[in-house]
Amino acid sequence: MLKKNRELIFSFTIFLMLLFSLFISTFSGTVEISPKEILSGKIFDDEVKKTILFELRIPRIIIAFLVGASLSISGAILQAFFGNPLAEPYIIGVSSGSSFGAVLSTFIGINLSLLGMSSQAFFSFFFGLVTVLAVYSISYFRGEPKPVTLLLIGIIIGSITSSLTSIILIFKQENLQSFIFWMLGSFSGSDWKKVFNFFPYFVFFFSLSVFFSKDLNLLVMGDEMAKSTGLNVKFLRRISLIIATFLTSFSVSIAGIIGFVGLIIPHAVRVILGSDHRKVLPYSCFLGGVYLIYADLIARTIYPPSEIPVGVITSLIGAPIFLYLLKSSSKH
User: What is the rounded CA–CA span in Å between residue 34 and residue 213?
Assistant: First the structure.
């Protein structure tokens, strides 16, 4: 009964946070737009405000939600995959690998689109997958690694791909500043095309993750235990890796590298609701989405008219929490 009440209160809190984030993000910014202008219809007489509201702010808010939700789901899945609460796309280098793929596709000038996926998203997914496979293979070469070992290998692989990205950017001097700003995480280039391209894939992979959430509970118990229940562990690991990497890569190709979201959001959900993935995944999805809407709001309003990369905000919040979790895990 207590658990049910706690879940109900948590659901209601997230819902209120979502409503408030949508309201304040819609009406906050360099150009002031009031609810009265929308309710009275005056917004349609002002082309500038109409464009800012419908073509810039609203798609930006939706993209921020989708990216926050995707990174949180990816973090929760990777933590089950590695059996490690410190695993998340940014820390184990998947975001850096995906970023390298996106920059490489721009550098060699490939500009294709298939089923709503740009060449940047394809390259981002491929190199993100290569990165996470490299981290997994090296970490588990001599049996199950300690959390710190996984962390160090993730940092090393992430550093290598970040260095390769920097080398490419040295050769591609034009638009260097915008590239660096994008790599630090930004929603400034959001538009409806990106929303419509991203949304169907997000719904598909989120649904897939929820479908396998019960199996992820078994995977956390260890491969041997999971196999004894009749679970196809090899298939589950493959599909988990594809879901987590795809959601991360698509997010990186749109908004750059935004760190620690996949770490702190699933952890917060587990503290409140426990570690059942049937709850962790859907609640992480909504809490992560709301979290990035607020983070983006701070990034674009704290020092107007300039904008701070949203990845800087999430790192400032996430790094101390990461250190706390690292210290806690080293005690066990």
Answer: 42
Instruction: Round to whole Å and give the CA distance between 268 and 19.
Output: 20
Query: Tokens at residue 208, please?
Result: 């897939």
Residue 227 has pLDDT above 60, yes or no: yes
Upper half-sphere CA count for residue 213 (Cβ side, 13 Å) = 20
| Amino acid 243: pLDDT | 93
Phi, psi of 118 (to 5 degrees): -80, 170
pLDDT exceeds 70 at position 212: yes
What pLDDT is recorded for position 290? 96
pLDDT tens-digit map of 274-299: 989 999 999 999 999 999 999 999 99
Cβ atoms of 262 and 78 within 8 Å: the answer is: yes
Q: Quick one: which H or E segment has residue 117?
A: strand 117-118
In DSSP notation, 52-71 reads: IIIIIIHHHHHHHHHHHHHH
State the Rg of the chain over Cα: 20
Question: What backbone phi and psi angles, to 5 degrees, belong to 223?
Answer: -60, -45
Give the tokens for residue 265.
Answer: 């959001």
Q: What is the pLDDT of residue 331?
A: 60
The whole-model pTM stands at: 0.90
Residue 290 CB partners (closer than 8 Å, separation 6+):
14, 17, 18, 21, 65, 68
Residue with tokens 């419509």: 196
Q: How far apart are CA 95 and CA 296, in angstroms?
A: 19
pLDDT at 116 over 80: no
Long-range interactions of 5-9: CB distance < 8 A, separation 24+: 6/272, 6/273, 7/273, 7/279
Helices (H), the chain: 2-27, 35-39, 47-51, 58-82, 94-107, 119-139, 147-171, 176-183, 192-211, 213-220, 223-228, 233-255, 261-273, 277-301, 310-331
Over residues 118-145, mean pLDDT:
81
How many whole angstroms separate alpha carbon 323 and alpha carbon 136?
22
